[in-house]
Records
---
Amino acid sequence: MAKKGTAAEKYANDNGFKFVDVDKTLQNNSTISKTNFNVGEAVTVKGAASGGSGTYTYEFHYKRSTATLWTKFGSVTSANFKPSSAGTFNIKVTAKDSAGNSSVKNFTLTASK
């Protein structure tokens, strides 16, 4: 890993090594299947990222919009969220790369009866 445009990039390219730009920002590209749904239906949240360095890991958290504490509901590449009651919920997906960088993406969901 080095900065783009340096001798390190040239060396990597000239010698068949993969060059990783340390300035490339980790982007959280996570998606959600729907934001409005009925109680009893599941919403699929998929973790996705680009940039950063190395491999990515994901953590999925939710809370009612009026709550202060987050609850973890997944830590693989995707997770299903299925609340047992109606209301507005916040979903937070944290993407992390192997260099320790993290990026958060938030979603607001409404579950109806």
---
Amino acid sequence: MSAPYVLVLYYSRHGATQAMAKQIARGVEQAGMEARIRTVAPVSSNCEATEPSIPASGALYCTEADLANCAGLALGSPTRFGNMAAPMKYFIDSTSALWLSGGLINKPACVFSSSASLHGGQETTLLTMMLPLLHHGMVLAGLPYSESALLKTRTGGTPYGATHLAGRDNDRALDADETQLCQAQGKRLGHLALKLMDSSH
């Protein structure tokens, strides 16, 4: 049996959400847990299009086993009209078998997002991303205001989860507050995963 890990699962079109995922993974590892970074395949409006099972570069695509066997989940997506991107929704919609088995019940989870504009639907994206995780019986963790960056950030950061302002051209790097909040969220998730694993034995 493999060592316990937190799954950091994201979709990223221009790299901003991927950058967040890496910082969240760093926080998970600061908590003493392994972080497993995975992504999901893009979807096409062409019904004949198919994606290879292994991407040519970048993070590996998530499998059902990656999700089923995780000790915790950080779920990230860019915002699309106030909701998660279609590839992530498509992946989540394929997890009915895991829902039927109750495989994610009582595991901790958090959500994170990125948008091009400051008020581009980050909070509604985070809240709607939480809904399927609640259906799976997961324990949701936000960002507490003990994280001082929440009170001073002028870019990303919400109590519902870490966010990032990517800018109009999606080329704005994570700033110090956004990086701190991503790592804090990952660290909190890692600690919760360890505690909930201990209490289940």
